Amino acid sequence: MVEGFSLKAFYKKYFYTIVVAGAVFLLSILFSLTIQEDSSANFQSILIEEGDTLWSIASRYEESHLTKAEFIAWIEEYNEVRADALQPGETIVIPVTQDEHIQSMASAE
């Protein structure tokens, strides 16, 4: 043990600092998880219809912030589906927020 150093004295002197640092750490983790859940819940879900392909869906939502290839890759990864395995009646999530879709519909009119 280092002469003049006492773990008990250190703990007593910095107890509140340790508690506050721990609380900040835990709250930041909880806040981070909440943000991730909220952002994915805001994406739009669409129903696959006869003749739909990921390419045609990407064309329909061209104003998205992604290229068509990125759009398709995002759908395949997020929904765990392959482009050639889409079935009519299936619901998938696309990387377009409800707000973006409403804005694009309003500007089209």
TrEMBL record:
Gene3D superfamilies on file: LysM domain
PROSITE patterns: LYSM (PS51782)
Upper classification of the organism: Bacteria, Bacillati, Bacillota, Bacilli, Bacillales
TM regions (residue ranges): 14-35
Pfam family, one: LysM
Keywords: Membrane, Transmembrane, Transmembrane helix
Domain (LysM): residue spans on this chain: 44-94
Species name: Peribacillus asahii
CDD domains per record: LysM (cd00118)
Domain of life from the UniProt record: Bacteria
This protein's name: LysM peptidoglycan-binding domain-containing protein
